[in-house]
Design brief:
Blueprint: E1 11-18, E2 21-22, E3 28-38, E4 65-72, H1 82-97, E5 103-109, E6 113-117, E7 124-125, H2 128-137, H3 149-161, E8 167-174, H4 183-193, E9 198-204, H5 210-219, E10 224-227, H6 233-245, E11 253-257, E12 263-271, E13 275-276, E14 282-283, E15 288-292, E16 299-308, E17 317-327, E18 336-347, H7 351-355, H8 359-383, H9 386-403, H10 406-412, E19 416-420, E20 425-428, H11 434-442
Helix pairs in contact: 1-6, 3-4, 8-9, 9-10
């Protein structure tokens, strides 16, 4: 991993929101950890990536980032024929959004993966000439063949690893199911590439599998979404690439240190999306573990940390956990600590203090439940369990209303008729457009922050 100077690294802050008071015998401690990064390359430093051409890039220098765009070219992309044209236009728009100095390549994905530009197992460095050449090469993209996404990811990894850059990112577009390789082949590819590059995944149309696309994005710490109408691809690809161009630092980890006797129950990202991190822990020394957070630009994210502490008597207090944002050292030595916060536990006989639920903890507990009941409700609906679907989706409507998650509430209203949002009383719609159901499922993990 590359070494960054202080001027290149965004400034990170960590804020901890919790009710630290526990009743006698209380053991569970919950905290919301808000991590915010500001400045860095976009605020007077030398940015690795940004939303506009870099004034600091000098031709001939090593690039600071690399991007590979993977375009589905399977036979189904020809139905309707405009879909392939929209994919070419979207890829061209993404190429136009590349910053000067960023290394890049375009891959065509079918039942095999092939290089479209620049070829030869290498990456091009973005400038006016290479962008024009890449867009010309897109004319050769045509539909035909099957879908084996694992092969696309493996080629992307080989290309990205050919460049010694700190930030490696992929953009993947598919319109179909991964039918031409075994499910374990895709899982193996994802496991092999976890931590090697991040990847945003998009499904176009309605013939793809939501859990496949969201699973790819989740494993590779990217975003997932649906583009039901192919004419929206260019705008979506531009937005994705602009977001990628805003990333300034990669491989930031959330390090959790706990004292002897403290057990970690879970760690999850809860904003801007719900993402389970508990099982992604890598050990980092005695009683410490790292949880991956991917790449960062100027942004803020929230994490829910839940630990179980030993029993203690009234009046005692302890440090339940120390949360740090770190950059691992390239040589395996001491990491750079960007910021940290403390999670505490204090035992009290004040019933008001010990029974109060922190607003942030309560809010995100509800948001995590919202994502869960949407998935459960849609699964029940697909299996024919309409009573179960009604109950789960009704609870989702109630949670969305309580938290002010208007976007999710709007998506739910296309799947159910809302009788009373406050009580979660709903009726399943007799007919639901496939695009509406897939959109709800794909975006079910998107959350809103605590209402002020």
């Amino acid at each position: 991993m590359a070494v960054f100077s202080k001027s290149q690294v965004p400034q990170f802050s960590v804020e901890v929101y919790q009710n630290e008071y526990l009743p006698e015998g209380g053991r569970e401690v919950n905290a919301i950890v808000t991590v915010t990064s500001t400045g860095g390359g976009t605020s007077g430093g030398a940015p690795l990536l940004g939303a506009s051409p870099s004034p600091s890039y000098i031709p001939g220098q090593a690039p600071g980032a690399a991007v590979v765009i993977m375009v589905d070219c399977s036979g189904s992309m020809d139905y309707p024929p405009t879909k392939m044209r929209n994919a070419r236009d979207a890829t061209a728009a993404a190429i136009d959004t590349l910053r000067d100095g960023v290394a890049f390549a375009v891959v065509a994905g079918t039942h095999v993966a092939s290089e479209v530009y620049p070829g030869g197992g290498r990456l091009a460095v973005a400038d006016a000439q290479t962008r024009a050449q890449a867009k010309e090469a897109l004319r050769r993209l045509s539909a035909g063949g099957g879908t084996a996404i694992g092969t696309w990811l493996r080629l992307a990894d080989r290309l990205l690893s050919s460049s010694d850059v700190p930030i490696r990112h992929g953009i993947l577009l598919t319109d179909g199911r991964n039918e031409h390789e075994a499910p374990e082949d895709l899982r193996t590819a994802l496991e092999a590439n976890t931590g090697r590059f991040t990847c945003d995944a998009r499904g176009v149309g309605t013939d793809w599998e939501v859990k496949e696309v969201t699973g790819i994005a989740s494993a590779l710490l990217g975003t997932a979404d649906i583009v039901a109408d192919p004419t929206g691809l260019a705008a979506d690809f531009t937005s994705m690439m602009e977001n990628a161009m805003g990333k300034e630092i990669a491989d930031v980890a959330l390090r959790l240190w706990t004292p002897v006797g403290v057990e970690i129950k879970f760690v999850k990202q809860v904003a801007p999306t719900v993402e389970e991190l508990t099982g992604r822990r890598t050990e980092a020394g005695p009683r410490a573990g790292d949880y991956p957070t991917g790449s960062w630009g100027d942004e803020s994210r929230d994490y829910h940390v839940c630990v179980q502490v030993p029993q203690a008597g009234i009046g005692q207090e302890m440090l339940a956990a120390r949360v740090s944002l770190i950059i691992p050292a390239a040589d395996g030595g001491a990491p750079e600590v960007l910021s940290q916060g403390l999670v505490k536990a204090v035992w009290t006989d004040d019933m008001v203090a010990s029974t109060s639920i922190n607003p942030q903890v309560a809010h995100y507990t509800g948001q995590a439940e919202l994502a869960q009941v949407i998935q459960q409700g849609l699964d029940a609906r697909k299996s024919g369990d309409f009573d179960g679907a009604t109950a789960k989706l009704g609870r989702a409507v109630q949670l969305a209303a309580d938290s002010g998650n208007r976007d999710t509430a709007k998506l739910l209203s296309k799947v159910v008729d809302v009788v009373d949002a406050a009580t979660g009383t709903v009726r399943l719609k007799a007919k639901v457009a496939e695009a509406d159901e897939m959109t709800l499922e794909t975006r079910s993990t998107k959350t809103v922050r605590v209402k002020k």
